[in-house]
């Protein structure tokens, strides 16, 4: 396994270099589509690591190229067939480069799935000079007790969420403040190591350099939740093709992430099996006639199934819309029940705000806004990503929440563990042993 601390530091430095050059590509590797956006930065605004809070180094950018292609070789948000996925990524990147009329060498990628697990870490140190310095922040992060998260898993995000200085808690950036005792609460997200390695290897096979990797759950929350929701506490549910990502935000930081291994493609396959039709026809029927709430009109609305089996009677079949809804609804309910379990496990009901935002391509099924509150709670809305300068109209829908969120992640990175020089020689003995074991496991 790689030393992820060093790998993430290298990626962060590569991202800074790419942003200074002014052009970077965004790659959203999903189960149903692969989206690529090419961003141009003005270069003036980016200041790396200038704050531990959200949107630390502000930078303005615009989208100059965008392309999507049907995803191949990806299941449950994880790469299943390397050559197929490589071909799909190349297709999307080349089309985006053509539109942008520039060549791109660096990409920042995000993916769903990978069986994410969240951990809460905390650490405490004495401040050396009575004024909190960068070195003190690095020491307190190093003093956080890293849990034994098991072999074959890697840390994807490790963000300080809250600092406390003496008896003052809720600080977003303690640097430069006077105090004696510095404590930190961190959120650490681990994923299946093989999923990250496969993604990095696949992108390298496309002759591209990886300048950053992010969780789909995290970036969807950045783009679909408005600022107040991120501050007061809200959950973002990104309903993709192969998996549904759940993330909870509080004080503008992600504090929990999980995923349900079901999505819109499962609804399509249910329709295909239920009506005995090809998957492409099932996708068309789901898109044009899908829904989760049946009315009296739906019994009379007949849908031509069509087909080219050669059997004239079979190819002229019709089904009522209420039959289609009867197939779709149980699967959508099952997905929402899975989301409910994730939120219950996270203790979501204890947050001051109970807002839930549904986004992603599968959230566009008509009637979901009336069904979801019955399962998830009253405060549910369908979210669209923030407007980004230069984004084509076709890429402003909920299906592009993670791609737009990745743009914001690239431009305005939150400080993470690897942005600080962790001083090994200053670890307390107990933490040193644990941290050294952690590094050893990850080399």
From TrEMBL:
Keywords: Cell cycle, Cell division, Cell membrane, Membrane. GO terms for biological process: FtsZ-dependent cytokinesis. InterPro entries: ATPase_NBD, Cell_div_FtsA, FtsA/MreB, Heat_shock_70_CS, SHS2_FtsA. GO terms for cellular component: cell division site; cytoplasmic side of plasma membrane. Residues 24-224 form the SHS2 domain. It is a peripheral membrane protein. Its main location: membrane. Belongs to the heat shock protein 70 family. Belongs to the FtsA/MreB family. PANTHER family: CELL DIVISION PROTEIN FTSA (PTHR32432:SF4), CELL DIVISION PROTEIN FTSA-RELATED (PTHR32432). Self-interacts. Interacts with FtsZ. This is Cell division protein FtsA. The lineage of its organism: Bacteria, Pseudomonadati, Pseudomonadota, Alphaproteobacteria, Rhodobacterales.
